[in-house]
């Protein structure tokens, strides 16, 4: 019962009626997407919710929904979104990997846990971020062996492999992508 009340509170707190989507108030659309995502594990609704809220700066809400999607449904997107939301919360909405150092050690470990678990599941966003963390020592010690291992995986990725292979000699160029 307590979880339902917290969820209902989050739904109503994040509601803004200034914009509409297909004649529905934007907040109603977001509420429906949240409910579909957390009650049914609807990954499409979760993805659309993330798209709708990407500019809202409501990172606590994104973190909460992402944690539910991760713990209850193991949704792939949730691993990276948890990491990203934690960084944004602690850095006034700014998502930069090097700002992971602004997190407390406990929060940093928690965020890196989700990033690492996502990388193990071959979630590209997690792999990209984790490679940079290890190569640059953002919030962790520099570990070139781990960075190189992940980099090789990214070089073999069909979607971004060419970019990684072309920057093998100057890996700092890949820092420009998120």
What would you say this structure looks like, in words?
With 178 residues, the chain is mainly alpha-helical. 65% of the residues lie in helices and 2% in strands. It has nine helices and two strands, in the order H-E-E-H-H-H-H-H-H-H-H. It has helices at 2-13, 26-40, 43-53, 59-73, 76-90, 105-120, 124-136, 144-155, 161-166, and strands at 20-21, 24-25. The protein has a two-stranded antiparallel sheet with strand order 1-2. Helix 4 (59-73) runs antiparallel to helix 5 (76-90). The radius of gyration is 18 Å and the shape is globular. The protein starts with a helix and ends in a 12-residue tail after the last helix. The model has no long low-confidence stretch (mean pLDDT 89).
The H/E string reads HEEHHHHHHHH
Helical segment tally?
9
Radius of gyration: 18 Å
Morphology = globular
Number of strands: 2
Mean pLDDT: 89
The CA-CA distance between the termini, in Å, is: 38 Å
- Report the structural category: mainly alpha
Low-pLDDT segments, ≥5 res = none
What does the secondary structure layout of this molecule look like, with pairings?
Blueprint: H1 2-13, E1 20-21, E2 24-25, H2 26-40, H3 43-53, H4 59-73, H5 76-90, H6 105-120, H7 124-136, H8 144-155, H9 161-166
Antiparallel strand pairs: 1-2
């Amino acid at each position: 019962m307590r979880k339902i009340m917290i969820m209902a509170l989050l739904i109503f707190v994040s509601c803004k009626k200034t914009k509409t989507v297909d004649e529905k108030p934007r907040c109603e659309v977001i509420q429906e997407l949240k409910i579909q995502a957390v009650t049914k594990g609807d990954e499409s609704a979760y993805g659309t919710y993330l798209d709708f809220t990407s500019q809202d700066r409501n990172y606590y809400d994104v973190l909460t929904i992402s944690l539910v999607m991760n713990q209850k449904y193991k949704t792939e997107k949730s691993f990276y979104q948890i990491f990203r939301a934690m960084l944004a919360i602690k850095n006034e909405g700014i998502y930069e990997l090097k700002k992971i150092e602004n997190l407390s050690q406990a929060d940093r470990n928690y965020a890196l846990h989700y990033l690492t678990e996502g990388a193990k599941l071959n979630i590209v966003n997690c792999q990209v971020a984790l490679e940079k963390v290890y190569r640059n020592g953002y919030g962790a010690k520099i570990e070139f062996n781990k960075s190189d291992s992940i980099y090789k995986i990214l070089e073999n990725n069909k979607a971004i492999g060419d970019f990684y292979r072309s920057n093998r000699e100057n890996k700092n160029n890949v820092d420009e992508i998120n």
